[in-house]
Specification:
Length: about 800
């Protein structure tokens, strides 16, 4: 039976001894049977007492000499007689695999002193392939046919290991939707209602996968375009060039524009830089367009293809260069084809686990509005929704039905739940009730780990609106901007509160703090310094500041200014959110305001900026906002009405508390165009003003995500172009997303990475259990990427960094 890493790791140590009871100098074998980082690509030449340290650095170099003692033919040990353990072939093996197939294989032969010898075998990336565990003379590597890239085949003999490499190149092509791919079934509508329900088709909108191209002339035109499309204005609208995507997302919706305005068929190509993955798909117009009478101007990447492409891209390559993913598009109409137009994306080699909590005005999942929607239509809702990993639409978390004001003035609006904050560990939600929708004075707490149980916070009106929650939700630092009374200064409360009286705190006096936020390690807070005093400093309502916080003494100290705005009353700095490195924040920089301190509507304009605690250097995140490198022009597509410059329509950033794949991840509200799906006026998001049931009226008020480089230098732009957050409700106005960690899993529960587990480790389980949560790493040696750490040296991969308690990969550009 073939076994992959999760099956073999637990027995590999025993298999290392299958050749007999001969001893040797110590070659260090890392947990899971891997050779140490210093041996990641080299054979080990081991002599007496050399500790197994390889010489040189030549992958597939000379055979390993192992052992200082061995058994001679008489069964006696003879010192200092080296023996040669070898595995052939020693050079990099490259195989091309048709997606879904498990051929061709690569056969390895183990020898000792030139004679066949039984060895133990494993691979370090079970998603690329498997190998029989042995003991056996031959190891047969078999690809999975789902993922490409470099896989290390490791042979073990009595404590010694040799590593060989296979480069797997996955290739595929299709014409129309693949009937054998269940994931593509979710991208084909069965009715017009499917197009706009939930998160939209496939969680991203559009009309789904197209039908096969059956006309030979059109197929021939797609293979040999007439021109490059420049004369026809052919261009991709979404995604953006140079976007960084994580793994595990729903497939994006390709959206394009050209003067012809419609298409008969398209050809999409995906290819990695190294050739580890290549795919071509041809599609005629989606069948649903015959019912909607719409134009063929967008098409999703098939979900199974996207999973294969992103699981492959971003991994190691033979030349050690970043393996980026390029998409190309050719469009055909009237027997002529044009293109390709192309973009290149970076794929971060990690998944983003967790849940996104956001509030929605206009949700279709609950009805609690005071008034009817446009043209005396139905009620709509205001609620907090959640997006779980892999979901194609959100679920209701906070909010319940309540009557119209015209029907029941007493109970109207009582089910509204909207403005909110969430603790970064995903345990607690604070949200404002809609009993009085003009002030949102009353608050409720929700236990996110106990069926979303609600506790109204009676007696605390005008207290917890936009409060800053500590990472575990045990402390609330109250806000003094909107949603709170300015009669009381900002205060600390234990949470859930047991007394109306706040906690005693030192270092602040009559402080008026706007939208405070704790750092993930709880050692800092940041907020807009609206007024009051901190030591000798007096707030002037134009500064974003940070303080150190000692939770044992509830003491604040060490005031630092992070950003300063002008005296213009419309310009504000608020909604800070700390990076997982605890040394910098992203924040909302108000540019144009109207009737609210931190405006996101009624013509308000803002950008997302960042600043570090050490130097206080504040700059816009240019790429995130859609600016060019100089910050002087837009890189976003422009559209009708008020979409001439979408770079100032970005608001309310929050940062995922865990670094992943070499990046920090920021989620923010934006009113920018979403390709050609959401193109209405940017401030048209109140369902009382338009028919929010029509897909053509999809509001642009949506959530977007952007990657931020780890360890960015002050004064630089560490951001990358943003992507639309899949699975958010398509026909609603969405804002203020919090990407938080899910409640940790107990030992023995299935996992994908250590940051999902209460004890921080995700390790191979017994039998065929796969990966499960554990309380330590095998042999307590080192931690894999996204497993628990206290310092960088704890990480197995020596290129990893210890970020916020977990080993995290650096950006590809720094490898």
């Amino acid at each position: 039976m073939n076994r992959s890493l999760s099956d073999v790791a637990r027995v590999f140590a025993g298999l290392l001894a299958v050749a007999g009871a001969w001893a040797c100098g110590t070659t260090h074998v890392e947990r899971d049977g891997f050779p140490p980082s210093s041996m990641a690509e080299d054979d080990a030449t081991v002599g007496a007492g050399d500790g197994g340290q390889p010489e040189g650095g030549n992958p597939g170099a000379a055979d390993s000499t192992v052992g200082s003692l061995f058994l001679d033919s008489g069964g006696q040990t003879t010192p200092d007689a080296p023996r040669v353990f070898d595995v052939q072939p020693s050079t990099l093996q490259t195989i091309t695999v048709l997606a879904g197939q498990t051929m061709p294989t690569v056969i390895y032969q183990a020898t000792l002193d030139g004679q066949p010898i039984q060895a133990g075998w494993l691979v370090d990336r079970g998603n690329l392939g498997s190998i029989g565990a042995g003991p056996s003379v031959q190891g047969v590597f078999q690809p999975t046919g789902t993922t490409g890239g470099i896989v290390n085949v490791i042979a073990g003999l009595n404590g010694q290991t040799i590593q060989r490499q296979v480069f797997v190149q996955i290739t595929a092509q299709q014409n129309g939707a693949n009937p054998n791919a269940p994931a593509e079934g979710t991208q084909i509508p069965t009715s017009i209602a499917d197009v706009g329900s939930g998160g939209g088709l496939g969680g991203v909108g559009g009309e789904g996968l197209g039908t096969p191209v059956t006309d030979p002339a059109t197929l021939a035109a797609l293979m040999s375009p007439t021109g490059n499309g420049q004369a026809q204005g052919l261009a991709l609208l979404y995604p953006y060039d140079q976007t960084v995507f994580p793994r595990g997302l729903l497939a994006p919706l390709l959206q394009w524009t050209w003067s012809t305005g419609n298409a008969d068929a398209i050809q999409i190509g995906l290819k990695t830089t190294s050739g580890s993955f290549s795919w071509t798909g041809t599609f005629a117009a989606p069948a649903i367009l015959t019912q909607t009478a719409g134009k063929f101007i967008r098409h999703p990447i098939p979900q199974d293809v996207w999973a294969m492409a992103t699981d492959t891209a971003g991994s190691a390559t033979p030349n050690k260069m970043a393996d980026k993913l390029t998409v190309s598009l050719v469009v055909a109409s009237g027997g002529q084809a044009y293109g390709p137009v192309s973009e290149t994306w970076t794929i971060a080699p990690a998944r983003l686990e967790g849940t996104i909590y956001y509030n929605s005005y206009g949700t279709h999942l609950v009805q609690n509005s005071l008034e009817r929607s446009f043209n005396n239509g139905p009620q709509f809702g205001a609620a907090v929704l959640a997006i779980k990993e892999g979901a194609t639409g959100p679920t209701l978390v906070a909010g319940r039905p309540s009557p119209l004001r015209a029907v029941d003035p007493v109970n109207a609006g009582t089910g509204c739940r909207a403005c909110h904050v969430v603790s970064s560990d995903g345990s607690r939600l604070l949200v404002q009730q809609g009993d009085n929708m003009e002030t949102y004075a009353a608050s409720s707490a929700y236990d996110l780990r106990n069926g979303y149980a609600e506790t109204p916070l009676v007696g605390y009106d005008n207290t917890f609106g936009w409060a800053g929650l500590s990472p575990n939700g045990s402390i609330a630092f109250t806000n003094n901007a909107n949603l709170a009374s300015r009669a009381n200064a900002s205060q600390l409360f234990s949470f859930p509160p047991t007394s109306i009286a706040p906690l005693a705190a030192t270092g602040i006096a009559n402080l008026l703090a706007g939208t405070p936020a704790f750092s993930p390690d709880q050692k800092h807070v940041a907020f807009e310094f609206i007024g009051g005093t901190i030591g000798a400093a007096v707030g002037n309502a134009t500064q974003l500041v940070a303080l150190d916080f000692d939770a044992t003494q509830n003491a604040f100290s060490n005031l630092r200014v992070l950003a300063t705005t002008t005296a213009d009353p419309n310009k504000r700095v608020g909604f800070p959110s700390f990076f997982p490195t605890n040394d910098a924040v992203a924040f909302h920089q108000q540019l144009v305001g109207s009737n609210h301190r931190y405006d996101t509507w009624h013509g308000a304009q803002a950008q997302v900026w960042w600043s570090d605690l050490k130097t206080g250097t504040a700059l816009p995140l240019r790429a995130l906002n859609g600016l060019n490198a100089a910050g002087t022009g837009t890189t976003l597509p422009t559209g009708p009405g008020n979409h001439a410059n979408d770079t100032t329509l970005n608001y309310e950033p929050t940062v995922c508390p865990a670094a992943s794949g070499g990046y920090i991840w920021v989620i923010f509200t934006s009113r920018r165009l979403y390709g050609n799906v959401a193109t209405t006026d940017p401030w048209l998001s109140d369902p009382r003003d338009y028919d929010a049931t029509l897909v053509a009226n999809t509001t642009t008020k949506k959530l977007w995500v952007a990657a931020i480089d780890l360890n960015a230098q002050p004064g630089t732009d560490p951001s990358h172009p943003a992507f639309y957050l899949p699975a958010q409700e398509l026909l609603a106005g969405n804002s203020r997303g919090f990407w938080v960690l899910d409640p940790c899993k107990a030992d023995g529960q299935p996992c994908q990475s250590g940051d999902m587990c209460c004890h921080g480790y995700c390790e191979p389980g017994p039998g065929d259990a796969g990966l499960i949560c554990a309380n330590s790493s095998p042999n307590a040696h080192c931690s894999k990427t996204q497993e628990k750490c206290t310092m960088t040296s704890d990480c197995c991969d020596k290129t990893d960094l210890c970020i916020n308690g977990f080993c995290a990969q650096p950006p590809q550009s720094s490898l």
